[in-house]
Amino acid sequence: MAVLSKPSTFRPSSQSVKAILNDLTSRYLQHRTRISRAVYLTLFVALINRIRNAIAEQKAASQRQAELRSKNVGTGSTEGEATSRKKVELNREFFKNLLRLLKIVIPGWRSKEFRLLISHSIFLVLRTMISLYVAELDGKLVSNLVRGKGRDFLTGLVWWMAVAVPATFTNSMLSYHQCKLSLQYRTRLTHYIHSRYLSHMTFYTLSALDDRIKNADQLITVDVAKFSNSLAELYSNIAKPVLDMVIYNYSLSRNVGGEGLFFMSLLVQLSANVMRALTPPFGRYVADEARLEGEFRFQHSRLIDYSEEVALYHGHEAEKDTLDKGYFTLIKHVNRILRRRFYHGVMEDFVIKYFWGALGLLLCSVPVFFKVPGVEGKSMGDRTESFVTNRRMLLMSSDAFGRVMFSYKEITELAGYTSRVSTLLDVIDDIQAGHFEKKLVSSADTEENAAVLRGRGEVTEGPDIEFRDVPIVSPNGDVLVRKLSFTVKPGDHLLIVGPNGCGKSSLFRILGGLWPVYGGNVRKPPFEDIFYIPQRPYLSRGSLRQQIIYPDSLREMRDKGITDSDLYNILSIVEIESIVDRPGGWDAEQEWTDVLSGGLQQRVAMARLFYHAPKYAILDECTSSVTLEIERVMYDEAKRLGITLMTVSHRRSLWKYHSKILQFDGQGGFVFTKLDAERRLELEDEREELELQLRAVPDIEERIAELTSS
């Protein structure tokens, strides 16, 4: 009788599973080369595709930003400092700005900076090769110790001490090269910025006609230094870890097999991507911190500049509130960065030191428990040597990868400094190209005034001064005079009068080339033929001689054939030759604004005018602190030297020295005519007499009313 059995599920035995694994292993070993090539080719294609997608995203983002900027073009569209508007990211804009700065700090392959980079790179390679040798030597030492080979162990110790000499020298040279590179970068960049910042009156225009940069002093002094340090550190902190990873991983792949290294690298890459996604935008934080530091410093410098006015108003409490607010805003931001760094540091330490360390131990244990094709050594000593060597190389490779990961923060910080320095250069380029951005708080938003501000006039050189239909615009964008026209020939001494804010200072700034010409035609002599003396003269840092010949240098003075005796004669004209008798004489160096009174400072400015003897001189209330006698001596001497004078003053004593007058009424109108000093004095006296009589009319009427009522 047939017995029917129930169908049972198939349960493979351990022997069958082992056989399957052995079969798969043998097949893998048979086609190992092809599989490895396919994997590496896939990784390469994936990398290329990722780079292509990143470039496409950056192009799209750049196009969107360009469209957004095109919508906001126009004077007055800016809202604050330029460096605060840029979003600091590791994008194409960052690499473009970095490449621009690199061309400045490393001008060519023959430059000193390039030679330092090559030397630095050689020592980086030497350091890696020494580390690789030390790893192998460490494995041999432990192997000899396990095997009990005392002689070989002591020989290894001797080699260990011998290799310490080039290793320590290499480390010191790496530190030296990094500091030298930072110093050279800063020197190159500072010289470049100084040449741009102090040319074409950019230093003035940057603060007067454009408000994108509020703290150029901090950008040039602090941010340039931080950028240079960050750039020099970044090369060392990236080049060496990358080189270490390539060499150590290659050696590890030979010892433990490329498959284990590949899977470990895959896990490391996944965890690194997670860390990168969770990394805060430290580059933007650094840029914001630098901006807040600059604003806080600017508030203090502003208090110093206006200390007398603040003291007269007793405004110390208000200024203290402003400074405290700026400081607490800065500290609040710094505390925010510290908290973000704390949380990010905990995550980085856990992943890099412990998670990746556990993966490394697994990888190093492969040659101990499994037979790796192509790796020799069956004894315990051989396995111990292999484990120690691999462990040492893995630790160094892991440390290198960790430094690469940590360098992402350094790169973002470099992006912040790069953004600020490149923004300064961009604004300087815009200003020198005639493009200004200023937040206007006046009537500049009216269509008529906006049309004037968008226009540009023509400036030509000639033997005289001529304004033809030139708009006069205030710093706030108010059009003070729509079409100013006048002519000053050599010898036509011009007196300019008018109420405050009528356009006198703006006129002089146009003549000095400080402000743009918004329309019409301006003909003026070359810059060196016009000399300006303000009410408060500028005294530079330097010797007494330099105060007289400023802005000439001692060599330029000698080239003109002028001696100290000639300078003494000039000082005697304005009766201040006695200051040469002070300790130090001509070479005395002091803070002259504190040493000399206001009247002496104005006399020094007069002496400076006689030294240069220009064709035209603009005198802006420059005799307000001197006596009428010194004023007379100054004007007579200036006329004797053939200097055509353009004076801004309300002192009646100066009328007789001028033949023409340009009078503003403060309402957009002006009168340009000949000046008859005697006739004008008579009319002025008559006007004052009538004003006195008119002021007496109410009293007379009141008295008449009293007499009538009585």
From TrEMBL:
Its cellular-component GO annotations read: endomembrane system; peroxisomal membrane
| Signal peptide start and end residues | none
Q: Pfam families of this UniProt entry? A: ABC_membrane_2, ABC_tran
Show where the ABC transporter domain sits. Answer: 465-692
The answer to whether keyword Transmembrane applies is yes
Q: Give the record's GO biological process terms.
A: fatty acid beta-oxidation; long-chain fatty acid import into peroxisome; peroxisome organization; very long-chain fatty acid catabolic process
* Keywords linked to the UniProt accession: ATP-binding, Hydrolase, Membrane, Nucleotide-binding, Peroxisome, Translocase, Transmembrane, Transmembrane helix, Transport
Q: Which Gene3D superfamilies match?
A: ABC transporter type 1, transmembrane domain, P-loop containing nucleotide triphosphate hydrolases
**Classification via SUPFAM superfamilies:** ABC transporter transmembrane region, P-loop containing nucleoside triphosphate hydrolases
Every ABC transmembrane type-1 domain range: 122-339
Q: In which domain of life is the source organism classified?
A: Eukaryota
According to Swiss-Prot or TrEMBL, what is its membrane topology? Multi-pass membrane protein
| Entry keyword Hydrolase | yes
| Gene Ontology MF, one | ATP binding
Q: Which SMART domains match?
A: AAA
* Principal place of residence: membrane
UniProt-annotated location(s): Endomembrane system; Peroxisome
Q: Which family does it belong to?
A: Belongs to the ABC transporter superfamily. ABCD family. Peroxisomal fatty acyl CoA transporter (TC 3.A.1.203) subfamily.
UniProt name for this protein: ATP-binding cassette protein
